Structure formats: C-alpha cells, structure tokens
Amino acid sequence: MRSFLLGVVWLICIPLGISTSHAAEHGVVVLQYHHVGDDTPRVTSVTAAELAQHFGFLVENDFNVISLSQAQKLITSGEPVPDKTVAITFDDGWRNLYDNGLQVFKQFNLPFTVFVNPELMAESPHLYLSWQQLSELADYGASVANHSSTHTHMTWQQAGESKSQWLERQKKDVLAAQAALDSALDGEQPQHFAYPYGEFNPQLAALLEQLGFIAFGQHSGPWGATTPRAAIPRFPASGHYANLTTLKTKLLSLPLPARTVEPASMVLEKGSDEVAVELSVRDIDDFSIDGLNCFYQGQQINPTKQAAGASQGQGWQLSLTLEKPPLGRSRVNCTVASQSAQGRFYWYSVPLVRPNEQGRWPD
Ligand SMILES: [Zn+2]
Predict the structure, then answer these.
(1) Region 56-64: what's the mean pLDDT?
(2) What is the pLDDT of residues 88-113, one digit of tens each?
(3) C-alpha of residue 93 to centroid of ligand 1, in Å
(4) Cα-to-centroid distance, 195 and ligand 1 (Å)
(5) Torsion sign (Cα): 4, 7, 9, 12
(6) The domain 28-255 belongs to what CATH superfamily?
(7) Distance in Å, CA 229 to ligand 1 centroid
(8) In what order do the strands lie in the sheet with 293-296?
(9) Average pLDDT along the chain
(10) Which of 127, 184, 332, 357 makes an SS bond possible with 131, Cβ 3.0 to 4.6 Å?
(11) How far is the CA of 188 from the centre of ligand 1 (A)?
C-alpha cells in the first residue's frame, strides 16, 4: 500500500516538474551599474542598447524585478524568495543616466535605485544628475539612495586621527548625505547605502547597521537569508560583465549559505603575502560539497573541506590560502552546482583589499 501511494505521488509530481526533495533556496540577485554611454570608461559602462538588451531579457524571461525596499521586506520577512527575483542599482548618479538611459527607463518602467553623492552633485553639476532629473527618473522607476557625501575610501584613517574620530567622521558623512536626500526629495528616503568602491570593514558595517541602514558592497553573489544586512553583495553588469551569456548565469545564481570566518576584515594587514581564507558553509541537500570550487584571479583553487558542527553534519569549514594578493581590490568566488535546478549555481564571494605600505591603494 505504502509503495503504491509513493508511486502515485511520484506519478503526479514528475509530470508537473515538482521535485520532491532538494528544493533550491532562492535569493535576490542585485545588479550593479555605473555609467550609461559609449564615451565613458568601458569597465564601468553599458551602452543604452546594452541596458535595453538587459532589461528586455529580464522582462522576456519572467524575472521578478523589484525595488530594494521590496527586496528588503522580502528578505527580512523570512518568507521564501520567489525564483528569479532581481533588483537593479546604479552607483554615483552620473548625468548620462538621464541623457542616455531615460529612453530605456521609459520603455521598460522597471524599478531601480540610484546611489548618489550629494556633495559631489553640488560641486560638479555638469557630471552628475540634478535633484530635478532624479525626480523625473522617479516617474520611470527610480529610487534614490545614499552613496556617502563625497565618495572617499571610507576605511582610510587620516593622519593623526584616532579610531573613534575616524568612525565619528564617517557617521557624520553618512548622515549628512541622508539629510540631503531627505530634504531635496519628497521627505524621508529609504535607508539604503552603497559603500564607495564597495569597501568596508567590520566597524563601518556595525555603524551602518546601528544607524538602521542596509548596505551594499561590490562583491558578487545573491542576497540571501543569511547575508549580513550591512554587507550585501551585488553583481557588476558593466564592461565585459555586460555580456548576456555570463550575466545570465549570475541572474540565475542561488545564495550559498556561507559566512566568512577569516579574514576578519576585507581590508588586509599591510604586507599580507599569504592570506588564509576560511568559510563556514551550512549544509543543504540541494548541493554536494564535493562539487564546491573557488576561483581567484582567474585560477581555480580547491579549498580543503572539513565537516563542522556538533553532529558533524551541520555544515562545512572550508579553508584556502591566497598567495600574493594584488594591491587593491580583489575577490574570491566560490560556487557549487544546484542538484535540483540544472545549470544553476550557489554562489558566495569574499571581497579583499590589499593596502600598500602607506595603508593606501588605487581607486
Ligand atoms: Zn561609486
């Protein structure tokens, strides 16, 4: 009788394409753009035609494109995230979003967020969107959010400045930018922050969280239930990342339930010739840990994997060593195939910045 019933369940489920186990866990894929145009640095640009192609792809393939506010609500609700949920962001508020992007925003009317630097907008109005233009873009899907007042490397301490003075300076900067947004736009704006250059450290993340913000970096991977609220990843979609073949894999990626144990901060110690990276990965039945691979600077690195947790069945401790990370920003990407969703990957990224002897690095 029991096997008969199981057979009936199997017969019903298979034609509907319902998997009886191994269900994939979904997250929100956040895309990150900068310029729209063909006369700006390619690495941070998409042309209007490419942007229209991306937006068209999302619409034609039934992606659920939502605003960051809707995404935040969804993630914090603890409810399952619908499959193929995507949010769109633009950093810096370049004027070319209006000059070249407006036609695309009008055509598709998808929600997106523009992260702006209010002091830079006031200093160089010919480069940046005006509040008036931002209001007009809001009619075609735009929300406006905080990218700091002046777009500095926020983790850099000034000469003679104490740790607490540095943190106080950052707090004032973030709050001044938010006050400018609130006064120039229609009242209180969402507390969404994008770190300039995607750079942060644990003190900054704690500050943003304490002030009530969610905060976005520039390391890749989807935003899932276990993502820290002040270290949310985004996938770059400009330059050679604009290619739809590779972008498609990212749009369909799933959040790997991992956290970084080591290094404690993305900003490495000076003279870090060898960097130990350690991740804690929760075990879910939709992937096999054996298939998990990490990639760094175009090289595949196989981490050592150890069962962790009280019953040795709750998760995995992954360790790998990076030799001579380059000066400035880099990232380690770790991926593993979903067993239930063919061609789709769980994805987690570890951002790193290696400083020079003066504790600085290039933009
Ligand atoms: Zn920026």
Answers:
(1) 98
(2) 999 999 999 999 999 999 999 999 99
(3) 9
(4) 7
(5) negative
(6) Glycoside hydrolase/deacetylase (3.20.20.370)
(7) 19
(8) 254-255, 345-354, 328-337, 293-296, 299-301
(9) 92
(10) 184
(11) 22
- CB burial of 186-204 (b: ≥16 within 10 Å; e: otherwise) equals eeebbbbbbbbbbbbbeeb
| Dist. CA 119 → ligand 1 center (Å) | 13
What separation in Å is there between the alpha carbon of 203 and the centre of ligand 1? 20
CATH entry 3.40.50.2300 includes domain 260-354: no
CA distances from 260 to 85, 250, 333, 334 (A): 24, 21, 12, 12
Average pLDDT over every residue of 62-67: 98
CA 91 to centroid of ligand 1, rounded, Å: 5
pLDDT at residue 14 tops 70: no
| Residue 10: exposure state from Cβ atoms within 10 A (0-12, 13-18, ≥19) | exposed
Task: Give me ligand 1 centre to Cα 19, in Å.
Answer: 42
With beta carbons less than 8 A apart as the criterion, state whether 62 and 255 touch: no
Compute the distance from residue 133 Cα to the ligand 1 centre, in Å. Answer: 19
| Rounded distance from Cα 100 to ligand 1 centre (Å) | 19
The pLDDT-based confidence of 23 (bands split at 50, 70, 90) is confident
- Helix%, strand%, coil% for the chain, nearest 5: 30, 25, 40
| C-alpha of residue 335 to centroid of ligand 1, in Å | 27
Sorted by where each begins, the domain ranges of the chain are 28-255, 260-354
* Confidence class for position 310, pLDDT limits 50, 70, 90: low
The Cα–Cα gap between 340 and 188 comes to 42
The count of other CB atoms within 10 Å of the CB of residue 91 is 28
